[in-house]
């Protein structure tokens, strides 16, 4: 009896020591391969747990082993924490920008308009890049901050509701808010802009050089990425089997998950020559708005680390 209690206490202690701790948003479609991987495939030395957060936690809390976030937050953190590494791409999302078609036919018509987004995030970078591609600069439109919505009916203060009530002329952000915005005004009254070359969210998994150098931790990180790799196989090839899981994880309707599935590319690995131009360009934009020095291309090349993928 007594011995068994000691053993249980020891087991709890060990599992909390070896547990893989992952900081991630828990609200978005992008994060869902992680709970799916833990539930169905992860075979590390102990449990893996998700907590609300992101790549900033890797810099501030040494008990966090991995983090998931868009490349925007990754670049912001990497500027001051050169030990952070991007080791896997969970998904690349071609964001969409929806406008009310009565006043807007093409992107350049957004000059002088009110555009909803979320400042400081990948959504704001997306809007800025899309408009810049049509020669429209940030001083030529106003950004109005709004919330996302995961499920209709979308409440006041959410971007779909602000578009419907004409508080804004357009908005751009991750899904499903744009899908719900299109539905809120009617697809025939909406014009939608999207170009994954101009901007796509690169929702990635990050760790640190210290974690990668710790051989026990590294084994669990490889095990987690292997589980993600198996998950992406399901997400890519049997999406019908995961719509309900994704919907339940983030409070959506499964039918809406299906409707926006095609905007998500479940990538895993990447090609440096394709990814680097986006990172170099975006870091320069962020450096300006964050009033910091830009990160050199040589340093951005170190940010990308395929060594875990190579061990799969
Ligand atoms: C997307 O943008 C790129 C770069 O500006 C351009 O070359 C390409 O034609 C655009 N694609 C579409 C489908 O508009
Ligand atoms: C998963 O791993 C296999 C084997 O390394 C690889 O061929 C495949 O591209 C990977 N899939 C993803 C989505 O990364």
Description:
With 312 residues, this protein is an alpha/beta fold. The chain has 14 helices and 11 strands. The strands form 2 sheets. The protein has a 6-stranded mixed beta sheet with strand order 2-1-3-10-4-11, with helices on both faces. The protein has a 5-stranded mixed beta sheet with strand order 7-6-8-5-9, sandwiched between helices. The protein binds 2-acetamido-2-deoxy-beta-D-glucopyranose (2 copies). Residues 133, 195, 197-198 line the site of one 2-acetamido-2-deoxy-beta-D-glucopyranose.
Estimate the strand proportion.
15-25%
SSE-based structural type: alpha/beta
Bound molecules: 2-acetamido-2-deoxy-beta-D-glucopyranose
Distance between the termini: 42 Å
Distinct helical segment count: 14
Low-confidence segments, given as residue ranges, are: none
Helical content (DSSP H or I, runs of 4+)? 40-55%
Number-wise, the strands total: 11
Mean pLDDT: 95
Whole-number radius of gyration? 21 Å
What is the overall silhouette?
globular
Order of helices and strands: HEHEHEHEEEHEHEHEEHHHHEHHH
Main sheet specs: 6 strands, mixed
Task: Report strand order across the widest sheet.
Answer: 2-1-3-10-4-11
Keywords:
single chain; 312 residues; alpha/beta; six-stranded mixed sheet; five-stranded mixed sheet; 14 helices; 11 strands; 44% helix; 18% strand; binds 2-acetamido-2-deoxy-beta-D-glucopyranose
């Amino acid at each position: 009896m007594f011995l068994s209690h000691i053993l249980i206490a020891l087991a709890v202690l060990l599992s909390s020591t070896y547990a893989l701790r992952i900081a991630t948003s828990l609200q978005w479609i992008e994060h869902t391969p992680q709970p799916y991987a833990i539930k169905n495939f992860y075979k590390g030395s102990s449990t893996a747990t998700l907590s609300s957060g992101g790549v900033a936690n890797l810099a501030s809390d040494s008990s966090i082993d991995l983090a998931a976030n868009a490349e925007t937050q990754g670049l912001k953190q990497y500027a001051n924490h050169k030990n952070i590494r991007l080791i896997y791409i969970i998904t690349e999302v071609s964001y969409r920008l929806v406008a009310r078609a009565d006043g807007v036919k093409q992107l350049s018509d957004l000059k002088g308009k009110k555009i909803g987004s979320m400042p400081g995030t990948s959504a704001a970078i997306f809007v800025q890049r899309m408009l810049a591609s049509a020669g429209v600069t940030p001083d030529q439109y106003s950004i109005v901050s709004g919330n996302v919505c995961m499920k209709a009916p979308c409440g006041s203060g959410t971007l779909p509701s602000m578009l419907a009530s004409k508080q804004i002329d357009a908005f751009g952000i991750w899904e499903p808010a744009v899908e719900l915005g299109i539905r809120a005004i009617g697809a025939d009254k909406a014009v939608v802009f999207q170009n994954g070359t101009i901007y796509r969210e690169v929702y990635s998994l990050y760790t640190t050089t210290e974690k990668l150098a710790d051989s026990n931790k590294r084994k669990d990180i490889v095990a987690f990425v292997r589980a993600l790799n198996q998950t992406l196989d399901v997400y890519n090839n049997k999406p019908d089997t995961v719509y309900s899981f994704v919907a339940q994880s983030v409070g959506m309707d499964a039918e809406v998950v299906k409707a926006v599935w095609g905007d998500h590319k479940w990538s895993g690995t990447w090609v440096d020559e394709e990814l680097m131009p986006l990172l170099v360009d975006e870091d320069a934009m962020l450096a300006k708005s964050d009033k910091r020095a830009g990160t050199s291309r040589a340093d951005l090349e170190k940010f990308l680390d395929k060594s875990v993928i190579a061990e799969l």
